[in-house]
């Protein structure tokens, strides 16, 4: 059959018209998507600014379902879920992102960092550590190292934390333009705490030689930091040494170590006074170190009154059998108003009149003493300067916010 050229002449214009119509449809669809996508962003942003997170999440979820390729919406959803406490949904969002093969290196690092933050918020520190490890060598390495340090501290994995801190220090020193003056002394000061924490673990296991060796390393690190930066030397290794001697039953040696620390670093006197006060019942009152400590505390109190120094002065004089020991409370109240000192003085008066009170109805006196004791206890707490956490015992790391050295060596009443 002969080919009809007339059909070709008719088909070419028709094919051209169909192609033109298809391109117009694609262009219109693309313009619709371009208009609707920013509209979705703006609508979700409006809800966020109005603190309507539920509506913002609904808008973003709908947008993600209609267009799964929107990476930024996934990040926004993950952040919103984490802020709302829906950590498991945030984990699923970031895991979905990491499963995509077309994700760029920068976006993959962002998704990995978001996943690590989700696990940190949940408290799954093992999973958080696994999520943070791939970030080493990326642009987010500094944030990842700081988060890893937090993870190791929460897991109380002090050797790992110490090794990581040494790597951070080595990287800082090898950076262009780095010098010894820029070694982040506050960060490096944590090394002293890490050695001391390991010493505490060894002491609890009754491995006293190992604990002593670790404290010597901590002391050497503290001395090196003080010499390099000109700052005051850390007192924690010496304080831990006093407590280690006390745990071994070497009470006189612990008292002598406290006396030596008080001579070398007077600013640590309140902590030393609080520590040695527990040793007084176990030390012979005739020991010269007890009298020497009393002289040192008295001189320090005249320069700068402190509740711990006051209480230890009274305890030493009572241990020595001096009858006017409680007059220190009156002296303290005269110098500055103090509920603690006044309550302690009243308790001493009740104790001295215990026989008379027993004859005239000792229950009333006991009730007053119990009320005074209850009233003054909160004023004897320590308070974190970062989060306000209050505790009866002194901590080198705040149990509330995990900050190091955030407790002043002063009681709440003095603050």
Mean pLDDT: 79
CATH architecture of the domain at 33-155: Alpha Horseshoe
Query: Share of helix among residues?
Result: over 70%
User: How is the largest sheet built, in terms of strand order?
Assistant: 1-2
Q: What is the CA-based Rg, rounded? A: 34 Å
Beta content comes to: under 5%
Instruction: Assign the structural class, choosing from mainly alpha, mainly beta, alpha/beta, alpha+beta, or little secondary structure.
Output: mainly alpha
**Could you say what the CATH topology of the domain at 33-155 is called?**
Serine Threonine Protein Phosphatase 5, Tetratricopeptide repeat
CATH superfamily of the domain at 33-155: Tetratricopeptide repeat domain
* Alpha carbon gap, first and last residue: 108 Å
Major sheet, described briefly?
2 strands, antiparallel
Which residues sit in consecutive blocks of at least 5 with pLDDT less than 50? 29-36, 178-183
State the CATH class of the domain at 33-155: Mainly Alpha
**Quantity of strands, as a count:** 2
What general form does the structure show? elongated
Give, in order, the helices and strands.
HHHHHHHHHHHHHHHHHHHEE
Q: So how many helices?
A: 19
